[in-house]
Write a structure and sequence with these properties.
3-stranded antiparallel β-sheet, two-stranded antiparallel ribbon, binds benzoyl coenzyme A, 11 helices, globular, mainly alpha, 472 residues
């Protein structure tokens, strides 16, 4: 078990004190991070006490410590999972060689790019969510939002550590740039599409945590397989934090579904808007939007980038070591969907260039399991409605379907049908305005907004009326 040293100015389990150059670089970055947090972090709550968890060690039981913290005083730091003795590179051209403790010169540019892309998403999501505190449905949810936010901040620290420790001056410049880009900014946007979208309301937040954080799970799991050992170790610890974010998303959407069903039964109507709920067809539209945006995050179906990352041993597949093939994929094939005239067909492509699609397959299957659990809630209320994932070609901006109009059920449609139907498929301005109209803060202990059901249990088994955030 690796203890985390909280006596240091930058808590860490990487013996930072022994590396003066790195320590200086990170101590130089720390006030810039805090300035960014102050300007772009949760608006209006910086001086409040929030009931947050802090990691005390990096093993699975390391999340034992809960207590009140003001967010700017959260102990952001550098936590890597324990090293594995004699760890080997498990795939690609370097298969069987010892994992690299340092960056191999030939892969320096590629690795830096991967780490920067990962790192960029973390502050982006904090920026996207910074206004949500003002409209929280409960203190429980407010606290969960802030927990997610501080952990995304820590994920940024994780990537900055790698950049500063392993990429010299270039790395330090990238660390600065991570604090300078802004989500949605016209001139200096965040790198990936989904991280420039708005998260204007809590339904969008929960959807984001379900769909977009889940991309984080699959990308981090692939990077955790990396032959570059420090990246692997840091991603392994980040995955323990990511799990909570997906829980917030799945349970948040599930509670909204639950409330919609309760209102439908109580008032014997499908029109729960009249009663202050969010109706299931609107939920479906939000699923369509957030799922399609997140599917883009896997990149093109056929990608030489992905093939190169793999062959070089930098980014593996999800659960690489559990797979029983040759882990080189030079000869294999993999089914990938593409367009044939106006039909969507599966083709066999070389396995190596199909890795993005393969990861997307793992992701879609995982999303479907979550949607099934939401459908269970609906079924348990005896209601005949099924939420579905949109077809993966629907509303894509990246890859083979970027220029193609496809319906959520997977038909290639003409512009006329798209124009006539897209309001049935995606949230309209009216839908957004309705959801926005529900976003009134509820901050009394134990109280919950009318459009969402209470959680099944409190954080760290706290009572229903626990004061998760001290507002006075
Ligand atoms: N938006 O061969 P292609 C998370 C670019 S989320 C904009 O199609 P590739 C989190 C691509 O960069 C996880 N650009 O794809 C969640 C490339 O540009 P260049 C984030 C895009 O390279 C919630 C070009 O298109 N982590 O942690 O195989 C809250 C052609 O690339 C997009 C990672 O993504 C897009 N959606 O794969 C907080 C892991 N998609 O090089 C946090 C690191 C592609 O031609 N990143 N492009 O200029 C990667 O592994 C890869 O960069 C990608 C793309 C999977 C994103």
């Amino acid at each position: 078990m690796a203890p985390i040293d909280y006596n240091e100015r930058i808590p860490n389990n990487v013996s930072l004190a022994d590396d003066r150059r790195l320590l200086r670089a990170l101590e130089d970055w720390q006030p810039k991070f805090l300035e960014w947090w102050h300007d772009m972090g949760p608006e209006g709550f910086q001086s409040k006490d929030v009931y947050l968890r802090t990691a005390v060690s990096v093993d699975a039981k390391g999340w034992a410590q809960f207590g009140y913290v003001k967010m700017p005083e959260y102990r952001w730091g550098i936590f890597l999972a324990e090293p594995e003795a004699d760890r080997r590179i498990n795939f690609g051209d370097h298969q069987g060689q010892p994992a690299w403790p340092d960056v191999p010169g030939e892969y320096r540019g590629t690795l830096r790019r991967l780490i920067v892309t990962q790192g960029d998403t973390e502050p982006a999501s904090v920026e996207q969510q910074r206004h949500l505190g003002r409209t929280c449905p409960s203190l429980y949810d407010l606290r969960n939002l802030f927990q997610v936010n501080v952990e995304e901040g820590r994920h940024l620290w994780a990537m900055v550590y790698l950049l500063d420790a392993h990429f010299g001056r270039d790395g330090r410049e990238e660390s600065e740039a991570l604090l300078q880009r802004r989500s949605g900014d016209h001139d200096k946007p965040r790198i990936l599409g989904a991280f420039n979208e708005k998260t204007p309301d809590w339904l969008s937040f929960f959807m984001f945590c379900f769909f977009t954080d889940r991309d984080g799970k699959y990308q981090l799991a692939s990077l955790a397989e990396s032959g570059f050992d420090p990246l692997s170790r840091t991603c392994r610890f980040m995955l323990t934090e990511e799990a909570h974010h997906m829980f917030v998303g799945e349970s948040g959407v599930g509670r909204i579904v639950q409330r919609a069903c309760e209102l439908m039964r109580e008032h014997k109507t499908d029109d729960v808007r009249k009663h202050g709920g969010i109706d299931l067809p609107t939920m479906q539209k939000y699923i369509n939007f957030h799922c399609s945006v997140s599917l883009d995050l896997f990149g093109s179906e056929v990608s030489t980038n992905a093939a190169n990352f793999y062959t070089a041993g930098l980014k593996g597949r999800f659960e690489e070591t559990k797979k029983t093939d040759d882990h080189r994929l030079k000869d294999g094939l993999y089914p990938v969907i593409g367009l044939d005239g106006d039909k969507i067909v599966a083709r066999q492509e070389a396995a190596l260039v199909s890795l993005n699609e393969r990861l997307r397959d793992d992701y879609v299957a995982d999303c479907q399991r979550g949607v099934n659990r939401w459908n269970e809630i609906i079924k348990n209320h005896g209601i005949d409605f099924t939420l579905t994932l949109p077809h993966r070609a629907f509303r894509r901006a990246i890859g083979a379907f970027a220029e193609v109009r496809v319906s959520p059920d997977g038909r290639v449609v003409g512009q006329a049908e798209w124009d006539a139907r897209h309001r049935d498929w995606l949230p309209t301005e009216e839908d957004a305005a309705y959801v926005g109209s529900l976003m009134k803060p509820v901050t009394e202990r134990g109280k919950m907004a009318g459009w969402i059901a209470p959680p099944a249990r409190g954080v760290n088994s706290q009572a229903e009326d626990f004061e998760y955030v001290r507002l006075s």
